[in-house]
Amino acid sequence: MKTEVLQQHRWLQQLLGEWTFECEMQGPPGQVPEKSSGTESVRALGDIWVIGDGRSTMPDGDPCSMQITLGFNADTQRFTGSWVGSMMTHMWIYDGELDPGGRILTLSSTGPDYMNPGQTRVFHDVIEIVDADHRVMRSEAQGPDGVWTPLMTARYARR
Asked: How far apart are CA 53 and CA 39, in angstroms?
């Protein structure tokens, strides 16, 4: 079985490399956002998948690590992947699409609503390519009213 490498697979290749990031997480209204920084190493798995291994610290100073996988499913014509982190037990499964301009990949996932235990919400992780050496990832959650609330912004720079 051999998969033809498509332009969407090639789009993912621009994520390859060694990165540093600065992250700002939104807290409850009226509270100062929490900040952290870290590193991410993104490697290829063949020509059709990328795997990113990240390291950072939690706001309390505890170390954390995370892993993201991203690919493109030629059958469904959708981006797919997963995200796991050492700070939680939920595995986030991604379904996504690229914007018409080819700069922004929006990944949707359903996961636990940490503000309402036992309930789930829809989340987006949005990866924007700024240039060859910079990208931004924004996370947001959809409320019951359909409005998207920003949760986190991470700014990456190639090392």
From this structure: 8
